[in-house]
């Protein structure tokens, strides 16, 4: 079955690279297709959403999803991860502490239900939660074959104690930012945020991506370096961080 990105509601950003905006929370999921490989960035807010992402990604890439990168441990980005059976899962170092343990999982479930996820879907996702197989502490170059490499970079703490970004070289370069950047609303700083480090994380993001990259927020429309820089300055002002 041959389908286009647009027919499935995906936005094509570069050759073999695209993203979709998931319903309800406007959360982004990304896809990077390689040679016989496919990387998904973030897994959606439920197992059912993860299954839909996996199915669509397989149609677009022409083969199964082989890699999954989780940008941070919030329910709308990780609850679908168990749907990607057989994929190699990557996350920022320390993320496993949020996904392991009864208390941590109960906090994730309560946050999901409090934000409107069906309690049964939340319970199902928590029961199936998986931890990353590979923990990224600095930078990790992932070879997807066919000359395609992506860079996984741990730039946190910031939005959470554990924040990972995914850079895809090319023309243009594409940077999946997770919730370090948000366009459809003000960046959310919950109890696990580290606001004093957030502006520095965005400085690092801009160093990695450069002026001409496309920056893909965790929520909202694709933005440019100027938007990221303005959001960096707004966060510094909001949290009283020295410029």
Walk me through the structure:
Helices cover about 30% and strands about 25% of the residues. The chain has helices at about 45-60, 75-80, 95-100, 100-115, 120-130, 200-210, 225-240, and strands at about 10-15, 15-20, 30-35, 40, 65-70, 90, 135, 140-145, 150-155, 165-170, 175, 215. With about 240 residues, it is α/β, with parallel strands linked by helices. The protein has a seven-stranded mixed β-sheet, with helices on one face. It is globular. The model has no long low-confidence stretch (mean pLDDT about 95). The termini are far apart.
Which descriptors apply to this entry?
243 residues; alpha/beta; 7-stranded mixed sheet; 12 strands; 23% strand
